[in-house]
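So, can you check these tokens?
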Amino acid sequence: MPRVFDVSRPVFPGIPVWPGDRPYEHDWTSRLADGAACNVGHIAMSCHTGTHMDAPFHFADGGPTAERIPLEACIGPAVVVPLARLGETRAERVLVRSGGGAASAATIEALPRLLLYGTDAASVDAADSTAFATHRALARRGTVILEGLDLSAVPDGEYQLVALPLPLVGMDGSPARAVLIAP
């Protein structure tokens, strides 16, 4: 049986969010404990909470929104590499162990065909970025952006990736559940 790594971050009250983003909140619409027929919860959060995908609309008015993220890019062979080795990879789906850093736009542009770029950081750009050059370089290439991964238990190497966004119509991003399947 293949080994499956869940590389999604759990979502819970108090999960760190980007400065200015809506914090995650949840509550109950009905509860069995209160005499209701079933438990029904509701949530409120930024589309960029925890493990998530950025839609091109995130940085480009008129760009495709979350329901149009190409699912073909979200499923298939992927490689996990440290940021320092990013320039060596030829994979179409790359998940980067950032070590607190971020790839430059020039590094992204030098890579061959790139369907999906993922990072264990909250953003593909540095936290203090105001130009968001890496986001823009990935958008120009049509690359799906997957952020907020938990790669801490995953060795570098080759895997099968399954990371699917919710089809949130008209939105700039979507939460995602991401798993890696070892060969």
Strands lie at 4-6, 25-30, 40-44, 52-54, 75-82, 93-97, 116-119, 144-147, 157-165, 173-181. The first strand starts at residue 4 and ends at 6.
